[in-house]
Design a protein that fits this description.
The complex is a heterodimer of chains A (113) and B (116). Chain A is mostly beta strands and 113 residues long. Chain A contains no helices and 12 strands. Chain A is globular, with a radius of gyration of 13 Å. The chains are: A mainly beta (113), B mainly beta (116).
Chain lengths: 113, 116
């Protein structure tokens, strides 16, 4: 069965620190990859997505992610976080044309002032 | 504004009761999904529907039922057979899957169900 693993459940860091969240998936075929964010009390929002082409994708709010096919990974990065980046982050994978998503367990990120 | 409306926002259920969660979208999206969100487990797919009058089981369909009589509506019933129904339920929709590769998921604001 397909699975999506997020390495950290909780991350606490200070403003201006760099953030990297790991995501690995187990599926050998073609995948579409996503990172979603859920700010406190808000809807899930799409941060960025990868379908094909340049494996380094840039998303909203200064986030980027790199697809490394050989490592089945799609790690999320931000060079300098802000307090407003406090949220839960979900990696998700889709392997079919209908877009059913398999989500990771999520990483709760807390940025302290 | 276009979007997905889930109601109610909070729902309390007594053990042994069935409850129905509403999900309505005015985005003219073809596909609709129900996910369950539990702390530390991410989102798990309950049911999904690609077209009207058709739906498929997801990973955790046991104890749930759905219907898709209208394109804009995809209600979820949590039955008494669901052993652990307390959770946050999210509805989502996407436009046609016709090869455009841009799933454009839109999520609702969720319903928090608590069994008392």
């Amino acid at each position: 069965a397909q699975s999506v693993s997020q390495h950290n459940h909780h991350v606490i860091l200070s403003e201006a620190a760099s953030l990297e969240l790991g995501c690995n998936y187990s599926y050998g075929g073609t995948v579409n990859l996503f990172w979603y964010v859920q700010y406190p009390g808000q809807h899930l929002q799409l941060l960025l997505k990868y379908f094909s082409g340049d494996p380094l994708v840039k998303g909203i709010k200064g986030f980027e992610a790199e697809f490394i096919k050989s490592k089945f990974s799609f790690n999320l990065r931000k060079p300098s976080v802000q307090w407003s980046d406090t949220a839960e982050y979900f990696c998700a994978v889709s392997t079919d044309s209908w877009g059913k998503l398999q989500f990771g367990a999520g990483t709760q990120v807390v940025v302290t002032p | 504004d276009g979007g997905i409306t889930q109601s109610p926002k909070y729902l309390f259920r007594k053990e042994g009761q069935n409850v129905t969660l509403s999900c309505e979208q005015n985005l003219n999206h073809d596909a609709m999904y129900w996910y369950r969100q539990d702390p530390g487990q991410g989102l798990r797919l309950i049911y999904y529907s690609q077209i009207v009058n058709d739906f498929q089981k997801g990973d955790i369909a046991e104890g749930y039922s759905v219907s898709r009589e209208k394109k804009e509506s995809f209600p979820l019933t949590v039955t008494s057979a669901q052993k652990n129904p307390t959770a946050f339920y999210l509805c989502a929709s996407t436009p046609s899957h016709q090869g455009d590769g841009d799933y454009g998921y839109t999520f609702g604001s969720g319903t928090r169900l608590t069994v008392v």
